[in-house]
Each structure stands twice: as C-alpha cells, then as structure tokens.
Input
Amino acid sequence: MTGLSGAGKTTIARHVEQQLLAAGQACCVLDGDTLRQNLCHDLGFSDADRAENNRRAAAVAILMMDAGLTVIVALISPFQADRDAARATIGAHRFLEIHIDTPLAVAERRDVKGLYHKARSGQIRHFTGIDSPYEAPVAPALRIETEHESPEQSAARVMALLKQT
Output
C-alpha cells in the first residue's frame, strides 16, 4: 500500500490483517513507521535513503512470504521506480500495488503527529507532498480514495481483490 502520510495505509492494512487472521490466514503488516524505528532507523529521507528503505522492506517481506505469511506493506514509497524494484524483487505474481489515494489537504487534516505542520514550517526536510514529490501509481491493482469511504469499506475492497488473485 502506497500513499501520502496520513492517507490511511496502516489503518486499512490493520483492518485487512484482522480479517485475514479471522479467516485463518497467517499474515502481518510491515508499517513504514515501525520499520523506520527499527530496521531502518539509520536512514533519512533522501531519495537514496527512501530507495534503501523500500529495498529492506521488500527483503523482509520476501522472508515472511517464504515462511507462509501474507504480508501487507504500508509505506509512503513515493517513487514509482522504488515500487517497481520491490515488485521485481518480490515477484510480480506476489506483488499487488494498492494506491491509498488521499488529497494532500485531507492528509494534512488527519495529521495526528503534526508532521505536515513541521514540514511546512521547515522543521522537516524532504517531506513527501510538501518539498519532496509523490509519484502516484499509474496502474495500481486497486486505487482506494479514502476521502470517500471508511477504513472498513476500503479493507473490504482489498479483501475482494485478494480473493480474485
């Protein structure tokens, strides 16, 4: 799942995770914030560091998938090239790109951590959507516009996609 900070990626991912677990499917969520606090704590937000963050997430996802888990990765992942590299690493047959599409103004209103305010005031540099670009997926497997539906509705759409694949 890719989208701006505050788009709802992790919220939707957690709803999907609960439904998969309830159906007896072993799964886990790899969340960008959690990865950056642990495995990727040494990375900043330069383009090269973002690419490395995505590479590490893909590597962990492969290990978990090989262990039989369904892995839901919720990252901003702002660059198409990095998402394409993850798809190539993981394997196109095991990779579904889901765009959690939320207008910047909505993401900013949802900003419980105050990150957009900090970025706009110059306290955070290279913040996606403010002074660093976000390249929306051109042809995602699913586009979810969280401005128009609840996390539960969004999760239901993801579950329907998973049943099709």
User: Anything to note?
Assistant: The longest strand covers residues 27-31.
